[in-house]
Design a protein that fits this description.
The chain is an alpha/beta fold. Helices cover 43% and strands 13% of the residues. It has helices spanning 2-17, 25-34, 40-43, 53-61, 73-83, 116-127, 145-149, 164-177, 203-206, 222-233, 257-276, 309-321, 323-340, and strands at 63-67, 87-91, 132-136, 154-157, 181-187, 190-196, 287-291, 296-300.
């Protein structure tokens, strides 16, 4: 009898642990119909106590632009929408693929092949049906940047690391319009956070991009620009990244979802500080690197320009660790020389 009782108990437990029937389309519609209507004050009430009612109203009236919706962009959309930001500009020209699954919040089996901008617009509206979300499905470019930045209070840089030309265009346009830009870069196991603020050190100044109008060998190569950007966000010279996994031709490299989520947390905090007008910003030339692998934070600092003697030493060390960048650099120098003959 005792054995039979134990068997019955085990059976009951298995039944209890089994998932219930999946909710189908009709069930979802009935659940939505029974749910109370969306109410902004109720949805974001748990922000209060950390922000005031007046500050929450500022968030509701703010417009944040997110350029790039890939590795960190989907997490940015989630975090910014859940702050209660009332308006979003979203730009990305890419579609979701299977290789995005490990880190991009918009990438699921249901969204493969869909445009990232449309998927994340849906995500924002699912969180806040009243949000004013606008999409730029062609990404940003010189022809639409003015419209993308119109009425924007804060920009978040979610552009792919390898798209340095588009990134510099965005920062220059924001510099001219005095719009702050939040940088949140996943590096190794952590995240680098920095905000470029109006009146402070510009993107090109902090990252020593040099004068793009000088031309010839005086202008940084694309490899040098990418290296300068990485060095400016790195707390040290030793990287956690396996160089053999960085593919310059395919423009891919290692990235973890933990680092992407940390980026979103940092960027949302910087946005909050900018919009409510309090809190200490990680403003250039100062930034912070959060290293959750080693449980520490590191201060970011401006690196020497790559055309100074110290910068040339940094470049030599970096090129030795990442030979693909050296090859890209040397190819571009050769192309320049051939173009001059």
């Amino acid at each position: 009898m005792a054995t039979a009782h134990l068997v019955d108990q085990a059976h009951d437990q298995r039944v209890a642990d089994e998932p219930g029937p999946a909710m189908h389309g009709d069930d979802r519609e009935r659940a939505r119909a029974a749910a109370p209507p969306f109410d902004y004050a109720t949805a974001f009430a748990r922000n209060l106590g950390l922000v005031s009612e007046a500050e929450q109203l500022r968030l509701r009236r703010a417009r944040v632009a997110i350029a790039g919706l890939g590795g960190v962009g989907g997490a940015h959309v989630q975090a910014i929408a859940r702050l209660g930001i009332g308006a979003l500009n979203l730009a990305d020209l890419d579609t979701f693929s299977l290789a995005n699954t490990n880190r991009q919040l918009g990438a699921t089996a249901d969204t493969m092949g869909e445009e990232k901008a449309l998927v994340l617009e849906r995500t924002a509206r699912a969180i806040n049906p009243g949000i004013d979300a606008r999409t730029w499905r062609e990404g940003i470019n010189p022809g639409n940047i003015a419209r993308f930045l119109e009425g924007v209070d804060v920009v978040i840089d979610g552009i792919d690391y390898f798209r340095i030309e588009i990134r510099r265009m965005l920062f220059q346009a924001c510099h001219e319009r005095r719009i702050p830009v939040v940088i949140a870069g996943p590096l190794g196991y952590g995240a680098a956070i920095m905000t470029i603020v109006p009146g402070g050190m510009s993107f090109d100044e902090y990252f020593n991009m040099g004068d793009p109008g000088r031309g010839g060998d005086g202008e940084l190569t694309r490899a040098e620009q990418l290296l300068s950007f990485a060095l400016g966000l790195s707390p040290g010279l030793v990287s956690d990244v396996d160089p053999s996994r960085v593919d310059i031709a395919a423009e891919t490299g290692p990235a973890l979802v933990s680092a992407c989520l940390l980026c979103a947390a940092g960027a949302a905090s910087e946005c909050l500080k900018l919009l409510v007008g309090r809190g200490r910003l990680a403003a250039s030339p100062h930034g912070v690197y959060y290293d959750l692998w080693r449980n520490r934070t590191r201060s970011l600092r401006r690196r020497p320009g790559l055309r100074t003697w110290r910068g040339r030493l940094l470049r030599r060390l970096a090129f030795a660790r990442f030979p693909a960048f050296r090859a890209l650099h040397e190819r571009e120098l050769l192309d320049r020389r051939l173009a001059c003959t």
